[in-house]
């Protein structure tokens, strides 16, 4: 399903005389993608090829003119500090405050992209993914998805969407943060771990998190606990090329 009614905005966050550009994607209608859709990764990639092939505006080409880093799926030039694109559902909002503080403290930059209620299917098919990769040109992509698919039937139908997202992200560093389960899932965590491997997948299921009144989203204390654990898992990958 195409994205509708999204508002993309940027705001400068001044922290210790530095600014962080935060990007958030807002959706006013929940993303729906039927798990019964028979679709292959190749079909999705073919449909999104034009989106991913769009050239990057010259103003965004801050790297060497001879660099091929802005080609679809390519990784930006090596750098001692990371530019992290954190994209996904409402759990991005849970991680962003503390993760941003950790990033700034260690000289990294974090750009959050939030699409409320989104799924692997929605992101895999969306032109927004290619647009974000082109415009932000991150060195690392942190995907925070799975909460909206915690109890999805036919969980294997999600496999092509995960494959497509990884192929579109390309050779950039990638870490996938699994959903912080508030109930037993139907297999999304097992599927994600099998597709990404333990080195690129963070299992949030085991974390004991205080929750808000909805029983789903971690409260302020839970946000801190979750982010601290996520950051520990990210540290071995940060600024290693």
Q: Could you please describe the fold and organization of this structure?
A:
The protein is globular and about 45 Å long. The longest helix is centred in the middle third of the chain and has 15 residues, at 91-105. The protein has a single domain, classed as Rossmann fold (3-Layer(aba) Sandwich), CATH 3.40.50. The model is unreliable at 1-36, 55-72 and 74-78 (pLDDT under 50). It has a five-stranded parallel sheet with strand order 4-3-5-6-7, with helices on both faces. It has helices at residues 41-53, 91-105, 120-125, 127-136, 159-169, 188-196, 220-234, and strands at 6-15, 18-27, 83-88, 109-114, 140-144, 173-177, 201-202. 33% of the residues lie in helices and 18% in strands. It is an alpha/beta fold and 241 residues long.
The termini sit apart by 36 Å
Tell me, rounded to a whole number, the average pLDDT.
Answer: 78
CATH architecture: 3-Layer(aba) Sandwich
Return the CATH class. Answer: Alpha Beta
Tally of helical segments? 7
> What's the count of strands?
7
**Alpha-carbon Rg, integer:** 17 Å
* Proportion of residues in extended strands: 15-25%
Helix content: 25-40%
Most strands sheet = 5 strands, parallel
**Structural class category:** alpha/beta
CA-based shape: globular
Please give the order of strands in the largest beta sheet. Answer: 4-3-5-6-7
The CATH topology annotation reads as: Rossmann fold
Instruction: Give the H and E element order.
Output: EEHEHEHHEHEHEH
Low-confidence stretches: 1-36, 55-72, 74-78
**The CATH homologous superfamily:** SGNH hydrolase
